[in-house]
Every structure is written in C-alpha cells, then in structure tokens.
C-alpha cells in the first residue's frame, strides 16, 4: 500500500498506508452498557484484513470503563472519577485480552499503549510515545491505544478518546483518521430527530455551520459529537482527513465507500512541534500584549518583541509553552518563550536596541520567535466541553 499525502478523496482510502482507527465505547457495548465480545471481534476482523493487505493500523479503543462494569458488579457506567478509574483498571486488561485473542487468531500481535494527556503535553513524553508507536508499527504490531484512565485526574484527562485519537494520528503521521461510533456520520441534527440527514462530505468549517451537535449520545459514550468535531478540527486542520462512520460500516469506511462523513483535510500538515503547541501543550504562563503587538503577531505573523509585552504571569523556563493574550485577556496565540518568567519583567516594553545596549547581545532576541508561535482560533461552538 502507498499513499499520496494528504489523501484528496475518500476513494484513495484503500491505498492509505497508515490509518488510525478510533472506536467509541458505544460501539463496543451491549445495550445495558457491558462490553460486547462479538463487537470487539467484528472490529478486529476488519482491522486484521487491512493489516493482512499490507496496511498499518493504530487502533485507539475506548471501552475500558465499560469492560469493568460487569466484573465489578456495577449496574451502570460509574459517574465518579474514582470508580471510573477502578472500572478502567479492571476493564482495560479484559478489553485488550479480547483484542489480543481476536488478532492472534489471525496471526497478528497487538501492543497496549496507555497515554495520559500529560504524555501529549510534555515534549519528552510526546517524543517517547512517538518512538514507541513507530517501532511497534515497524515490527508489524497493531498498537491499541487508550487513555491511561487509572492515573488520569479530572484536571488533566481527555475523558473521551476523540481528541486523543487526533493527536495520535499526528504523532504517527497517519494518512487518515477513521472515527467509528454508533451513528453513521455527522447528521444535520440529532440523528433521532425526524428530518436529520447524513452529511456525506465536509470540505470546510462552513459546511458544518448550523449543524446541531448539542445532543448527548449514548449513555456509555463521552463527549458526543462535540468532541468528535474537535478531533476533526485537530486532524483535518493539520492535513489528516477524517472519516466519521458507524462501527457497523467500518469495512466500507476503510474501503472508501460512501458511508458516514468524509472530512477533507483543510490545513497543511503542520510540524508535530507546532501541533503539539496548538492542541496539546499546557501553557505555563501568560504574556499580555499591547494592541500593536497583537496586530503584529496575529495579522503580520511577526515575532513577539519585548516592546509589545505589558505583563507576565506564571512561572516558566525558557522553552516552555506560554499563552499570548490581548489586553482584555483573550488568548490570541501560543508560543514557546525564549526567556524565563524571571527574565521577562526586566524586558517589558523595552526596545531590542535598548536591551542590547544595556544587557548585551543575548538580550536582543524576540520574547517568542515567529517559528515558535501558533495562532489560536476562536471557537465558534458555545457548547461546553464535556467530561
Ligand atoms: N448532528 C449529529 N450528528 C450525529 N450524531 C450526533 C449529532 N448530534 C449529537 N450526536 C450524538 O453523538 C453520539 C456519538 O457520540 P458518543 O456517544 O460520545 O459516541 P462514542 O462512544 O462513539 O464516542 C451519537 O450517538 C449521536 O446521538
Ligand atoms: N478511556 C475511556 C474512554 C471513555 C469514553 O467513553 O470514550 P468515548 O466512547 O470515546 O466517548 C474508556 O476506555 O472507557
């Protein structure tokens, strides 16, 4: 298999050399919320066929919490974090054991990869995960990724696996991301509402304007369509097209057939570094810019010079991610600081030539270089991010 990168049309999907497939809890469970071994096996069969045809697959699978419900004697999906962690701890092993058996029956090995949001935030961890996934793929293994729910805290967890899957797609430089759920694609409104119809193709944000995604989905899934569209925006916005389809249509989706919704890549493939900065990095502090500096950074895409910074907050080292805000506090960009939070106050509002004259040539550089900056898009959605 080979692939021109990025794929321009869904009919190229059968030739995509490397795909990330994400499956949600709602597609792996029985109606009462327990893990359904038949659905796990059915998906493994489809992915095993892809693997046998020479395609590399990374599976991002939810379902750990659901898999823990039955063995722990719980009646439904737990709501509190501690019981979710306990259920995931019991369920993750059982979930992967089912996949391992189903793939082993086809002579394919799987490898479990548990990531926390922090692993996609801290640069060293990010690189480490990237290296491990790459090696697993080289060795012909199907990596099975999930969030490490047992150690994730409320503050730092993804909660759903949609955004994690988009970051993993980027991490492994996938040619496409396939999101499998319990509905066949994005609909014009809640799929159960009369008159809602499937949207077969989305070429840009204007195609989803007015689409109602506010309805929560299944009782076992987390995030509904909101986090799926966030995932699409991360992946498609950085050059990786996405197919959103029902798990029942997994085979057809991977074959490039007209099922679900095809989200064309909208942005160029960004460097992993900048994507990490835009979507994954937790900022360690804030630099408040004056209006002129906001215009320079946002409209002219220049570096942020000390003269345009009016205040600094937080505790960060040179090289740490920081938020750049307008005078009213709105975050306009994220960047890697070239100075520590201790050094910045001494530079505030001063020109680079003053700084060079007073402090020496090492201090005439930008506070954030343009190559280390990403602009933050304002979200149109007023829907709160679910947990
Ligand atoms: N406009 C829409 N189009 C399609 N699905 C929608 C829409 N709005 C809300 N949804 C809901 O999103 C749900 C899928 O999200 P979720 O339950 O979190 O699934 P998963 O477990 O696969 O992550 C669907 O069951 C559907 O009811
Ligand atoms: N990491 C969790 C995922 C939680 C979840 O429900 O996610 P999803 O079904 O993708 O919305 C688990 O494995 O249960």
Automatic annotation (TrEMBL):
Family under the similarity heading: Belongs to the glutamate 5-kinase family.
Protein's cellular compartments: Cytoplasm
Record NCBIfam families: proB (TIGR01027)
Main location: cytoplasm
InterPro entries associated with the record: AceGlu_kinase-like_sf, Asp/Glu/Uridylate_kinase, G5K_ProB, Glu/AcGlu_kinase, Glu_5kinase, Glu_5kinase/COase_Synthase, PUA, PUA-like_sf
Pathway(s) served: Amino-acid biosynthesis; L-proline biosynthesis; L-glutamate 5-semialdehyde from L-glutamate: step 1/2
Keywords of this entry: Amino-acid biosynthesis, ATP-binding, Cytoplasm, Kinase, Nucleotide-binding, Proline biosynthesis, Transferase
Residue positions binding ATP: 22, 181-182, 222-228
Chain ranges of the PUA domain: 285-364
Reaction(s) the record says it catalyses: L-glutamate + ATP = L-glutamyl 5-phosphate + ADP
Binding site for substrate: 62, 149, 161
Species annotation: Cellulomonas cellasea DSM 20118
UniProt keyword Transferase present: yes
Enzyme class (EC, first level): transferase
Biological process annotations from GO: L-proline biosynthetic process
GO CC field: cytosol
Task of the protein: Catalyzes the transfer of a phosphate group to glutamate to form L-glutamate 5-phosphate.
EC number: 2.7.2.11
Domain of life: Bacteria
Pfam families: AA_kinase, PUA
UniProt KW Cytoplasm keyword: yes
Protein name (database record): Glutamate 5-kinase
GO molecular function: ATP binding; glutamate 5-kinase activity; RNA binding
């Amino acid at each position: 298999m080979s692939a021109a990168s990025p794929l321009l049309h869904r009919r190229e999907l059968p030739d995509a050399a490397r795909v990330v497939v994400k499956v949600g809890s709602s597609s792996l469970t029985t109606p009462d919320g327990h893990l359904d071994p038949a659905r796990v096996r059915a998906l493994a069969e489809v992915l095993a066929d892809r693997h046998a045809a020479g395609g590399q697959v990374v599976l991002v699978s939810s379902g750990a919490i659901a898999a823990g419900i039955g063995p722990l004697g719980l009646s439904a999906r737990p709501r509190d974090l501690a019981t979710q962690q306990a259920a995931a701890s019991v369920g993750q092993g059982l979930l992967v054991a089912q996949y391992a058996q189903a793939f082993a029956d086809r002579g394919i090995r799987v490898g479990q990869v548990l990531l926390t949001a922090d692993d996609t935030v801290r640069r060293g961890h990010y690189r480490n995960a990237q290296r491990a996934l790459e090696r697993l793929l080289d060795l012909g293994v199907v990596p099975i990724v999930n969030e490490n729910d047992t150690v994730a805290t409320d503050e730092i967890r993804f909660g759903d696996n949609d955004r994690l899957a988009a970051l993993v797609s980027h991490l492994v430089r996938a040619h496409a991301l396939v999101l499998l759920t319990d509905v066949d694609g994005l609909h014009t409104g809640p799929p159960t509402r009369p008159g809602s119809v499937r949207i077969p193709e989305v070429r840009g944000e204007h195609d989803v304007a007015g689409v109602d995604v506010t309805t929560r989905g299944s009782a076992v899934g987390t995030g509904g369509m909101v986090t799926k569209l966030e995932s699409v925006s991360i992946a498609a916005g950085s050059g990786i097209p996405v197919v959103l389809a029902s798990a029942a249509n997994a085979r057809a989706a991977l074959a490039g057939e007209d099922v679900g919704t095809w989200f064309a890549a909208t942005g160029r493939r960004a460097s992993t570094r900048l994507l990490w900065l835009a979507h994954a990095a937790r900022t360690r502090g804030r630099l408040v810019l004056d209006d002129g500096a906001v215009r320079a950074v946002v409209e002219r895409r220049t570096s942020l010079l000390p003269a345009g910074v009016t205040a600094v907050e937080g505790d960060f080292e040179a090289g740490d991610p920081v938020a750049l805000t307008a005078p009213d506090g709105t975050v306009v960009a994220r960047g890697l600081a070239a100075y520590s939070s201790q050094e910045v106050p001494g530079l505030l509002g001063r020109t680079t030539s003053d700084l060079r004259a007073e402090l020496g040539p090492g201090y005439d550089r930008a506070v954030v270089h343009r190559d280390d900056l990403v602009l933050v898009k304002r979200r149109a959605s007023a829907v709160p991010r679910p947990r």
